[in-house]
Amino acid sequence: MSEPMTGEGALGVAPGRVNLIGEHTDYNDGFVLPIALGARARVRAVPRRDDTVVVSSTQLGETVQLTDLSPTPGQWWGYVAGVVWVLRQRGHATGGVELHLDSRVPLGGGLSSSAAIEAASALALDALWGLGLDADALAEVAQATENDFLGIPTGPMDQRASLWCTAGHALLLDCRTLRGTQVPFALPDDLTLALVDTHSPHVLADGAYGERRAACARAAERLGVTALRDIDDLDAALGRLDDDVLVRRTRHVVGENARVWDAVAALEAADWPRFGALMTASHASMRDDYEITVPTVDQAVDSALASGALGARMTGGGFGGTVLALVPTGAMADFTRRVADDYAARGFDAPSVSTSVAEAGGLELRDAADA
User: Fold this and answer.
1) In whole angstroms, what is the distance from residue 356 CA to residue 286 CA?
2) Which of 30, 162, 234, 335 could disulfide-link to 119, CB 3.0 to 4.6 Å?
């Protein structure tokens, strides 16, 4: 094996995200409202003298050496090495590289650990090779890694949230134009954004996600619109669909887009009860119309509301993951205890509760050999 280069390296750091509202709207050309988290993925890149790509992971304790990169679904190292492949596909001058991953974003929790890793890798490689990619290009490269290298048909939200969010703000992203607007999200001292990790890992690579995406595409085709975002009269549109599944999927997407805009208005007015009510309505729609919740997340929402939360909803692609709750700060201890007790009563594994504020997106550091 050729020896690695021991000179300067680069470091990319990118956060996970939670989507405050706007679920499964992204691949329907709709609107989303995520914030970046404090939990981050770090990827350190060091150049090599040959063309080999070496990927290692602190958490897994594994190292792989790759001499021939090609799209490979289902491999953990693909979220890192796949970025190199995408850059090469786009004609960027690249070489061999050692990439070391240290990610503190929980896997399978609906917090977009994959996008954090992809974004951190893109930032590290951009810095290492001096590619000069702007924020738009970095996000496109990171998303293409997931879509084209790993074969997961996710929309444009996660990587852009990881890269574009600013501290104290949510990112209102138009998933058709890919234009982002920063919306203030600074909770008052008497409110806390709680995250309940249900320890029910979700998997977007399975068939359920693809089935819902395909159903939305069929509904749009039958209605003669480019995407469900383009429906102006929901009742009329639903009356033209003779498939109950397509009715429910369409109702969720159109209603969820409207809830995103209502949530933006609530944030701008600092109307927290209204914002909480929209969170809860979003969860009900995901549960009943989009059918992507599971008993553990539904229980977390019910427990949150019973303990006095202003609102609660699942975040992420569904079938497990994390629940957000807008909880009065003084009620956090009771909230945490209530969720744990309710889980125990139903025989579920104990959940984990944390809190978050809106953090900043990714960053890159040159000459990061000692970082």
Assistant:
1) 23
2) 162
**Residues 279, 205 share a domain:** yes
Cβ-contact 30, 109 below 8 angstroms = no
Domain extent for 70: 10-185+359-366
Instruction: Tell me, yes or no, whether 2 lies in a domain.
Output: no
Q: Report the distance separating Cα 40 and Cα 15, nearest Å.
A: 4
CA of 346: how far to CAs of 171, 314, 352, in Å?
36, 19, 16
- Which amino acid type is present at position 75? Q
Q: Residue 116's domain is classified under what CATH number?
A: 3.30.230.10
Residues 6+ apart with CB under 8 A from 224: none
Tokens read off for 132:
């000069």
- Catalytic residue numbers read 158
> Do 280 and 347 fall into the same domain?
yes
Q: Are 124 and 366 in contact (CB under 8 A)?
A: no
Read off the pLDDT of residues 235-294 as tens digits, 9 standing for 90 and up.
999 999 999 999 999 999 999 999 999 999 999 999 999 999 999 999 999 999 999 999
Q: At what angle do helices 113-129 and 157-164 cross, to 10 degrees?
A: 60
- Is the same domain home to 229 and 295? yes
Q: In terms of domains, do 30 and 179 share one?
A: yes
